[in-house]
Amino acid sequence: MIQPRPRTIPEATVARLAVYLRVLSALADGGRSTVSSGELASAAGVNPAGLRKDLSHLGPCGVRGVGYEVGALRDRIGRVLGVERSRACVLVGIGNLGSALADYAGFGSRGFEFVGLFDAAPARIGQQIGGQTVRPLDELEDVVAATSASIGVITTPAAVAQSVCDRLAAAGVRSILNFAPVTLAAPDGVDVRKVDLSVELQVLAFLGQQRLAPAAVGEMA
Amino acid sequence: MIQPRPRTIPEATVARLAVYLRVLSALADGGRSTVSSGELASAAGVNPAGLRKDLSHLGPCGVRGVGYEVGALRDRIGRVLGVERSRACVLVGIGNLGSALADYAGFGSRGFEFVGLFDAAPARIGQQIGGQTVRPLDELEDVVAATSASIGVITTPAAVAQSVCDRLAAAGVRSILNFAPVTLAAPDGVDVRKVDLSVELQVLAFLGQQRLAPAAVGEMA
DNA sequence: GCGACTTTGTTCCTGCGTTCACAAGCGGTT
DNA sequence: AACCGCTTGTGAACGCAGGAACAAAGTCGC
Predict the structure, then answer these.
(1) CA–CA–CA angle A196, B54, B200 (5° rounding)
(2) What is the pLDDT of residue A3?
């Protein structure tokens, strides 16, 4: 059996597929049956040619002259992204941000299910958030083992993020999403993805100031 | 006067500069006086050559054979990123995520100051978060005008994000950070930067499943 | 039944970001 | 004073993502 299609999808494409999935779900809820690449690209904020190239990684899934069938394309992207399978996630650090994530309903519809919330502060333990009870950090390894959680989310202070990362990796978690403002080191075979909110703000602010005064990088008083 | 150095810094470099700044601040607090590109790159999780190229955008700032002077480099990056100047920010949508951002102490040290928190729900108005009082959405334009806020952060539900974006842009905000899971349209001259938490999780999960089974994209049952 | 129009899927190309490798420069040592 | 090791800064090559243009294909109208 030949393999005419390269078996790897670029990371940038995967991120956009998730956006297309959301737009398609909204269109389907609105009763739309077909959509063209141009319209879909406009709604997703990308170039139409790039969108078609992204979709081409899934094989032909449109009809020339007509466009894409909304429900079918949504299901197809959902299958590729693995939305239908439930993924067990654990969340460590139930501060403001952790609480926001645990309580965010948008994850459930994408196949993500929090099976454990952990915090070190005794005051937090026992609190109910999003249908889960906050547990002491000691139980982390037991819960990961019992639930086969494959994804860990770190929303702790920076000082303890590395130690939490180490424990998650040792317990068998293979994918980690880190919101703490530190760069984490993890063993091979463990993916760490970082979201740094203050870096996002900083980049945004810099682009704004650069637009106003595109000169004078090295010669400021 | 010649301009030997290109006056624009790539966006990817700006994001890394913010990371270097944080690492350098930690090193300075720890009493380190000099650091080599290799060590700094390791702490920031990047390639040493790339780090040196990033820093070369600021002009020569290291000493060959020795390394970089921690405090001087920190100050230099801080000046380029504009950390010393205070930037007024408004935040719309005081849910869990908005509260987390308003209460996050890490922004203040980077020059970001929230000058207005807004929500549409009467129950939220009057609440005190991070030293600010939550105001009704009606006051958005007045506060933006009075404080000359240049940055807006949107943490509202998706349904109202576009209308908030329109109002921010009309009020004079030039840079918008959007956490709502929709793609926003804004007029020319207004930068919109999007952070989509569920997309991050989705990409992470996909990379994990792709690592386990790198085949069969189009041929799943 | 046939032609024209619409839209997809693909190919080419341009530009950017990243990485490797080397020359230049500084401090310490003899 | 000269040499040696170490580190920076830069030039070149590689790979990748993004955008534009074109051919294939299907539908609608006549």
Answers:
(1) 25
(2) 42
